[in-house]
Automatic annotation (TrEMBL):
Residues 191-293 form the HTH araC/xylS-type domain. GO terms for molecular function: DNA-binding transcription factor activity; sequence-specific DNA binding. SUPFAM superfamilies: Homeodomain-like (SSF46689). The keyword Secreted does not apply. This is AraC-type DNA-binding protein. The keyword DNA-binding applies. SMART domains: HTH_ARAC. PANTHER family: HTH-TYPE TRANSCRIPTIONAL ACTIVATOR RHAS-RELATED. Keywords: DNA-binding, Transcription, Transcription regulation. It comes from Micromonospora viridifaciens. It holds the Pfam family HTH_18. It comes from the Bacteria.
Length: 304
C-alpha cells in the first residue's frame, strides 16, 4: 500500500496510483490503487499522523502493531502517531482503499476526543450504510465539488464514522476468545481458516458454491461454516453478500454501465430481482436508484 508521510501520499513504500480527493484545512482525503512490484512485506513503518483507512476493493495483508489482519472491501482501520504498520500484497495488484488523514484539532470539540487520539490503532468493519456514504463521498469528490462542500462532507463523514465505531473495536483476539473459548493454537487455526475462506471468496468472482470453497480449503462445508461464524460473528452467506454489494457499488459508481441483469449474473445473483432484494436489505435502496445517485452531482444518500 502507498505509505503517506508528512501530508504527501507520493512518498510511498509500495507503488500505487493515488489521487487526492479533498484537502480542507486540517484534513487530507485521497484514494490509492496499489501496483505491486514486490509482493513481500514492506515496513513496519512508524505512523506519523492520525489516519482512517477504508477498503474499497481487493485484498491485502496489514500488520498493525504486530497483529496480522486481512483487508477487504469491508475493512476499516485507524492509526495514530507511534503505531507501526507493515503491508504485503501476496495476491498481486488491484486492491483499492481510501484514506482520511486529520489533525488532532479536528476532533477537539468531540467529548471523547482523548479516547480516540490516545489509544493504539484499531481494526474494524464498516457497516453497509457507512460504506455507501464513503463511496458516495468518493464519487462526489472525483466528479468535482467546491472546497466548502468537500470540507463539510468530510467533517460529517468523520463524525459518523467515529460515532458508529465502538471504542473497543479491534482489540486483539477479544472477539474470537469470547466466541470460541479454546486454546491459543485452536484460535489461531480457526482465524487462519476464516481468513483463507475470505481470500477464496474475494478471488472467486462470487461463482463458487460453499462446497467448492470448502474443498479448496480441505475441510467440510459444515466445519467451515461453523468456524467462520465463530471467528467473524457472521455467516459465510452474510459475508459473501457484503462483498457482492460492495463490488456492485463499484460498478454503479462508474455511471453508465452494463444493464443490472448482467451485473446480477456477473456477481452470482440468481437474477436482477435477487440483486435488488439483497441491496434493499443491505443498504436500504435498490441498485437502480443508487446508480442515479452516484451520477447526480449534488445528490446525498441521506436524502434518498
Amino acid at each position: 500500500m502507498a505509505e503517506q508521510v508528512g501530508g504527501d501520499p507520493r512518498r510511498q513504500t509500495t507503488a500505487g496510483r493515488w489521487q487526492v480527493l479533498g484537502a480542507p484545512r486540517g484534513m487530507l482525503f485521497y484514494q490509492v490503487k496499489c501496483i505491486v512490484e514486490d509482493p513481500g512485506w514492506h515496513g513496519p513503518t512508524p505512523e506519523t499522523g492520525h489516519r482512517v483507512f477504508l477498503g474499497r476493493a481487493g485484498t491485502a495483508q496489514v500488520r498493525l502493531n504486530g497483529r496480522l489482519n486481512l483487508t477487504d472491501a469491508t475493512s476499516m482501520w485507524l492509526t495514530r502517531p507511534g503505531d507501526e504498520m507493515a503491508t504485503s500484497h501476496p495476491h498481486g495488484d488491484g486492491d483499492v482503499y481510501s484514506c482520511l488523514e486529520f489533525d488532532p484539532q479536528v476532533l477537539a470539540e468531540r467529548p471523547d476526543t482523548e479516547q480516540w487520539l490516545h489509544r493504539r490503532g484499531w481494526w474494524g468493519s464498516a457497516d453497509e450504510r457507512l460504506d455507501l456514504e464513503h463511496r458516495m463521498l468518493v464519487a462526489h469528490c472525483r466528479r468535482g465539488i467546491d472546497p466548502f462542500e468537500v470540507s463539510e462532507r468530510l467533517h460529517r463523514f468523520l463524525g459518523r464514522l467515529l460515532s458508529r465505531t465502538p471504542l473497543g473495536a479491534g482489540e486483539p483476539g477479544v472477539e474470537i476468545e469470547r466466541a470460541v473459548g479454546r486454546r491459543p493454537a485452536t484460535l489461531a487455526a480457526h482465524r487462519r481458516l476464516a481468513d483463507q475462506a475470505r481470500e477464496v471468496l474475494i478471488g472467486s468472482d462470487f461463482q463458487l458454491g460453499l462446497t467448492e470453497v470448502a474443498e479448496q480449503l480441505g475441510c467440510s462445508p459444515h466445519h467451515l461454516s461453523r468456524v467462520f461464524q465463530r471467528v467473524t460473528g457472521q455467516s459465510l452467506t452474510a459475508y459473501r453478500n457484503r462483498l457482492r454489494v460492495r463490488s456492485v457499488l463499484t460498478v454503479l459508481a462508474d455511471g453508465d454501465g452494463p444493464p443490472l441483469s448482467e451485473v446480477a449474473a456477473a456477481h452470482g445473483f440468481a437474477d436482477q430481482a435477487h440483486l435488488t432484494r439483497v441491496f434493499r436489505e443491505q443498504v436500504g435502496h435498490p441498485p437502480a436508484r443508487l446508480r442515479r445517485l452516484f451520477t447526480a452531482g449534488n445528490a446525498d444518500v441521506d436524502a434518498a
